[in-house]
Structure formats: structure tokens, C-alpha cells
Design brief:
Length: about 260
């Protein structure tokens, strides 16, 4: 059957068997696992997940036509949810953490990631995420401090997850062929992380800092705190540093002081 991918939904189907196998191998799927796949398309990756015989496979496909195709293709072997993942991810309730696969649409990939990070009991619901992102986005996710790609996405992700890039993927392995490279990364929720009152405060702080990433941090500190110099002293902050020079933990510390003022 000929399927024309929808540009509006960011559909690019991965069709290389070696890479599909590599993706599934990253999940280390066991027979008692529940697996969720975001955007299965025509089922190229689903085929390889099925070969691992997990306890249950759930796929979320926004495209009605594609959801009907995979429903017909797999029957009762999988559960198909015809919905936008951004509208239904909060509805999932599981007895044990699950594994999630996804060749994420470029246009909403960061929204999906940030939405997952905001889940308060993330490590109780999800064991591991095996995601394909646009390479540029993946590089920002895995970036460490003192590098050009380090920013709010790096900080928010590393706050709650361990992250690792597995491979970069050439555009030729997708249909239709995108103009950019992609990357496969794994994200594992941390069992323990430094709590903040509201993740929106951490988003707000990192936005202020990295909207002026070439400026010294004295400027964003002045925006956040009236007594910015005292706060800087308390945190042993050099106000001449740039935003990319501060560690993720330092942004958490700044966030906690900020929350004490706004709560």
C-alpha cells in the first residue's frame, strides 16, 4: 500500500533494518515489559518490537489513516490509540515503569520531551525512553556545560534524566528524506534528583539566562533578584561568567532561592 507521509505531522518513516534493530536493542525488552511506541507510522519499528515478545505493546498514532493501517496489520497483537501524544500522555497508568520508543516528529519533539520532564512521578511510570530527534536538537539535549549547545534543554533534561547518544542517522534512511541528520538517544529517568517546587520556575530561570547567552550572568541575575549581588555571593557565583559556564546543579540552586522569594 502506498502511503504519502504528511508534512504537517512531521512524518518521516525510518526504513533501514540495521538501524531499526539497533533502536530496539537499546530497549533491552523483556517478556514482562509493557512497551509504548509514539508515532508508529506504517509499523517499521513495531515489527522489530514485536519480535522481542513483550507483554504488551501500545502505539499512539495521531494520523487516523495510519492508525487504521496498523490496527489492520497487527490486529490484537497491539493496542492502537488514535490520539495526539501531547493530549494523552497523562492518561497512562501502569503498575510498573514502561519503555517508550519514538521516531519523534521534528516539529513537536521538544514539546514531547518537556511534557515528560514535567511529570512529577516520572521514574515510577517510565523506565527508559529510546527516541530519535533531529540531530541539532539531540546535540542540545546531551550537551554539557561550557559547550556551545548547552542550554535550557540540556539543563531540564539532565535534571531528571540520564542521557546518552547512541548513533547519528543519515537522512537517506528515511522516507521522505529529510534535509537534516537525526540522532538516536536514550533517556533514563533518575531515581533521585534535586526537587524544585515547580518546574515552571526552572524553565523561567533558564529562559532568562539563555535568552542572553552571550551576556555575562550579572544581567539575568539582576532581572531575577533585587539583591542579586548578595545572592551571587551566597552561591559563590562569578557574575562575569556566561550562562553556559554554570552547571545544572547551580541552576537548581538559583531556582530554589528564587522560589523562596516568589512562593
Amino acid at each position: 500500500m502506498s502511503i504519502k507521509p504528511k508534512k504537517s505531522l512531521g512524518q518521516n518513516f525510518l526504513n533501514n533494518s540495521k538501524i531499526l534493530k539497533t533502536i530496539v536493542d537499546q530497549g533491552n525488552i523483556k517478556k514482562d515489559d509493557i512497551v509504548l511506541e509514539i508515532g508508529p507510522g506504517v509499523g517499521n519499528l513495531t515489527d522489530y518490537i514485536l519480535k522481542k515478545n513483550p507483554k504488551k505493546i501500545i502505539v499512539v498514532e495521531k494520523d487516523k489513516k495510519l492508525s487504521e493501517i496498523v490496527k489492520k496489520k497487527y490486529g490484537n497483537d497491539i493496542e492502537v490509540i488514535n490520539e495526539d501524544i501531547l493530549l494523552c500522555y497523562k492518561d497512562f497508568k501502569f503498575h510498573s515503569p514502561i519503555k517508550v520508543f519514538g521516531n519523534l516528529p521534528y516539529n513537536i519533539s521538544t514539546k514531547i520531551l518537556i511534557s515528560l520532564i514535567k511529570i512529577s512521578n516520572l521514574n515510577k511510570l517510565y523506565e527508559k525512553f529510546i527516541f530519535i530527534f533531529q540531530k541539532e536538537v539531540a546535540d542540545r539535549i546531551i550537551a554539557e556545560e561550557n559547550t556551545k549547545n548547552y542550554g535550557r534543554l540540556s539543563i531540564l533534561t539532565s535534571w531528571k534524566m540520564k542521557k546518552s547518544k547512541i548513533i547519528d542517522i543519515d537522512p537517506i534512511y528515511f522516507f521522505p528524506k529529510p534535509k537534516v541528520w537525526s540522532s538516536l538517544i536514550t533517556l533514563t529517568p533518575k531515581l533521585n534528583f534535586e526537587a524544585v517546587s515547580n518546574v515552571k520556575n526552572l524553565e523561567h530561570i533558564t529562559n532568562i539566562f539563555f535568552n542572553q547567552r552571550r551576556k555575562m550572568i550579572k544581567k539575568p541575575m539582576k532581572q531575577l533578584f533585587k539583591n542579586f549581588d548578595l545572592v551571587a555571593k551566597k552561591l559563590s557565583l562569578d557574575l562575569n561568567l556566561r550562562p553556559q559556564n554554570l552547571s545544572k546543579n547551580k541552576y537548581i540552586e538559583i531556582c530554589k532561592i528564587y522560589e523562596n522569594l516568589v512562593d
